[in-house]
Backbone:
């Protein structure tokens, strides 16, 4: 009986402790329960901060009769770390999207992640490059290297950039661990808490998570995803100009080519106008170029970096969407002064990017394998894009809207007004199909009837089957709604 009372008291104390913790009390280290012989030390716990709430991940309670000699352990000071936890780290980013696939069989058709098709990874060619590098310079690539990047890779990338119309020198180039780290370095180097950063709305959630985590003030400028009379696709430049005029903006972030999640590309005239505004207000522009090579047509619009005459564009890119998403290698092209600042931040973050990965990719570029693989993948993704567009035209009910992109990996879909994509996902998931609800991509004012279809990792037959299932479940929900409307009308007539 006494033991049961002690357990009850301990449980009560633990519950009271958690309530205090949830209310934000910091002094929760030591806690005496109503049973005088018991003392409670809440230790070995971690706090995961999210907006307006805290979630206790692990709590271990221990009882002791020597309350007077109790000393707090390190874990008892953990609540102070909540101030350094990224505010939206658990609610935004690709990690949030990947949770959508939890508990779903591998056979499911997933339109969630915008990733290269794994069946086309050039594994044999990469193996040849790895072996060549290890035979030639194993000692060098397995040692520490320069923070700004492996010199042969930088030389190969400068040649690639020159071929794409971007003039740069070694001092203008920094190798990173991919675009995600590039965003992180830019945030740490140039943005302080409270600084204003302009982002597309909707936008890439990984970048949104980074700048929210750095306590930036993210200003959302809407994307025009449908061609309306008198308007152009892409970032709303009138809203951009108004935002620049009303705020002291530190950076503008955008993806001009096949934007994630909408797939929309900015026309040439819009790019020139954007750069004119950036020059007028002297605001640097971060250009995410990661999808630009995946164009379905031969003609390409020049990148912002190609058009830049004010030296304000920070150009970031990666191999991740063409091949090798697991080899975390990307790069930043920017003015030399900006690169030096980014290099210092990079050095304090991880010293340098993996040398073996850099050397392998340098060899891959040197042998001409990258251009061959890129040409093949353009055809693959163009075929899959055509398949998803054809399936949407064939199966989707009236009232559903989309704009076929001219490349990339994503297509943005708007359901009929009043429908919630997150609710539709529940029903579609039961049929073995997944997609990303639009709410994951908005900095502000999410539209619940939007969703992203990332088609790159599914073949044409899978794409068609997945879209057909999605359309079928949407039609089922529409019929349910129509029956509900008719019942409501009959009830209203009966009351009259």
Residues:
């Amino acid at each position: 009986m006494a033991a049961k009372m002690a357990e009850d008291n301990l449980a009560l104390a633990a519950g009271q402790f958690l309530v205090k913790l949830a209310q934000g009390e910091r002094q929760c280290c030591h806690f005496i329960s109503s049973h005088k012989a018991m003392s409670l030390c809440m230790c070995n716990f971690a706090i995961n901060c999210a907006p307006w709430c805290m979630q206790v991940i692990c709590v271990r309670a221990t009882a002791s009769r020597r309350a007077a000699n109790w000393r707090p352990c390190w874990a008892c000071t953990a609540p102070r770390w909540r101030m350094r936890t990224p505010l939206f780290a658990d609610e935004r980013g690709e990690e949030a999207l990947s949770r959508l696939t939890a508990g779903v069989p591998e056979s499911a058709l997933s339109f969630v992640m915008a990733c290269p098709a794994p069946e086309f990874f050039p594994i044999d060619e990469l193996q040849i490059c790895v072996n060549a590098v290890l035979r030639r310079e194993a000692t060098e690539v397995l040692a520490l290297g320069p923070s700004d990047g492996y010199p042969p890779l930088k030389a190969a990338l400068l040649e690639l950039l020159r071929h794409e119309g971007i003039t740069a020198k070694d001092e203008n180039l920094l190798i990173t661990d991919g675009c995600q780290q590039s965003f992180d370095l830019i945030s740490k180097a140039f943005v302080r808490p409270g600084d204003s950063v302009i982002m597309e709305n909707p936008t890439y959630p990984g970048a949104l998570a980074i700048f929210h985590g750095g306590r930036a003030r993210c200003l959302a400028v809407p994307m025009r995803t449908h061609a309306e009379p008198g308007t152009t696709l892409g970032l709303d430049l009138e809203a951009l100009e108004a935002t620049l005029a009303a705020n002291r903006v530190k950076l503008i972030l955008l993806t001009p080519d096949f934007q994630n999640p909408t797939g929309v590309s900015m026309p040439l005239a819009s790019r020139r106008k954007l750069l004119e505004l950036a020059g007028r207000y002297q605001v640097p522009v971060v250009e995410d170029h990661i999808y630009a090579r995946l164009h379905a047509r031969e003609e390409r619009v020049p990148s912002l970096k190609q058009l830049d005459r004010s030296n304000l564009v920070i150009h970031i890119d990666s191999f991740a969407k063409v091949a090798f998403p697991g080899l975390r290698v990307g790069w930043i092209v920017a003015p030399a002064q900006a690169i030096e600042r980014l290099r210092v931040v990079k050095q304090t973050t991880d010293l340098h990017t993996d040398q073996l990965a850099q050397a392998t990719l340098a060899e891959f570029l040197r042998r001409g394998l990258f251009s061959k693989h890129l040409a093949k993948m353009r055809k693959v993704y163009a075929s899959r894009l055509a398949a998803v567009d054809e399936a949407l035209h064939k199966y989707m009910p009236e009232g559903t809207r989309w704009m076929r992109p001219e490349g990339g990996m994503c297509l943005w879909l708007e359901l009929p007004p009043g429908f919630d994509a997150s609710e539709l996902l529940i029903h579609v998931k039961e049929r073995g199909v997944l997609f990303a609800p639009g709410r994951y991509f908005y900095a502000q004012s999410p539209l619940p009837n939007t969703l992203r279809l990332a088609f790159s990792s599914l073949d044409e037959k899978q794409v068609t089957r997945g879209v057909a299932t999605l359309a079928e479940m949407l039609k089922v929900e529409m019929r349910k709604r129509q029956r509900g409307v008719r019942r409501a009308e009959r009830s209203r007539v009966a009351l009259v």
Q: What stands out?
A: Residues 94-118+372-495 form a domain with the Aspartate Aminotransferase, domain 1 fold (CATH 3.90.1150.10).
